[in-house]
Design brief:
The chain is built from 3 helices and no strands. With 84 residues, it is mostly helical. α1 packs across α2. The radius of gyration is 29 Å and the shape is rod-shaped.
Length: 84
């Protein structure tokens, strides 16, 4: 048995944010919508971060796979007078 006088809260964010959630809407639906908006904002932030990461991957792909298409110095020196 525990001798603690205060109950342990499993949701510290809810303990901190229940007053603004209650002020925006009276009832459970308002609280659910409020938390849903927070989750949608987090999803948008994550999606922007993923777009940045994917852009970096595309740049790396371009650098490593298409760099071989650039003419080399040896090839340019060998084909200086050669016209096709």
């Amino acid at each position: 048995m525990s001798n603690r006088t205060s109950p342990i809260s499993r949701f510290p964010a809810f303990r901190r944010l229940w007053r603004p959630a209650l002020a925006t809407g009276a009832g459970g639906t308002g609280i659910v919508i409020w938390f849903e908006e927070i989750m949608l904002f987090a999803v948008e932030i994550v999606s922007v971060m993923l777009v940045i990461v994917l852009g970096g991957l595309v740049c790396l792909f371009d650098h490593f796979f298409f760099k071989s298409r650039m003419p080399r110095r040896e090839a340019e020196q060998n084909n200086k007078g050669d016209k096709n």
